[in-house]
Specification:
seven-stranded mixed beta sheet, alpha/beta, 193 residues, globular, binds 5-O-phosphono-beta-D-ribofuranosylamine
Amino acid sequence: MTSDIKNIAVFASHGGSDLQAIIDGCKAGKINARVCVVISNNSGSLALQRARDENIPAIHISEKTSLGNLGETLFKTLVQYQTDVVFLAGYMKKIPLNVLSAYRNRIFNIHPALLPKHGGKGMYGINVHKAVLAAGDTETGITIHRVTEEYDAGSILEQRKVPVQAGDTPEILAARVLEQEHIFIVEFLSKIL
Ligand code: GRF
C-alpha cells in the first residue's frame, strides 16, 4: 500500500521549539507528514535532543563533520531519509546551492518578523525584536518564505501579524512572536502538505 504521508526534514540550530511544534502537529494528525530527519550544525542543540526523544533520526552535520563536502553530505542525507520537503526552523547557516537546486521550491524558512523588514545577515534571534522596537513599529509578525542563497530573501508565502505592545522588551516580544509561530507553522504545513 502506498502512503501519501510526506517526509519533512527539519534543520535547526538551537532550541527547536518550532521543530517541536511540527513534530506535535504531525503526531496530532494536523499535518499529513512525519519528520523524517532532524539536521543541526550544532551538536549540542536542544533540537537534536528533542528529535532523539521522539525517536527521529538526529544528525549533526557541519563543515567539519562533512570534511569540506557539506553540500554533498546534506544532499545524501536528505535523499537517504526520502525527504519531500525541507523546513528551516531556526537554522543559522546558508543552504548549499546543490541542495537548493535539488529541492527547489520545497525548502521553507520561518522568520520572526514581517519581511522584507528586519531580515538579512545578522537579523536572527533577539536582534530581530530589538530592531522592531528600535524602529518604533506598532506591529511585527512572522514570515514563511522560500529559501534562496541569500538570508531571508526568497519569495514570501505567508505572513501573520503580531502586535507590539506598550512596555514590550525584546524578550517579551520574542516570546509573543514565538508562541504564534508554533500555531502558524502547523497551519502552514497542513495547508501545503
Ligand atoms: C524562531 O524564532 C524562528 O522564527 C527563527 O528561529 C527561531 C527558532 O526558535 N528562524 P526555536 O529554536 O525553534 O525555539
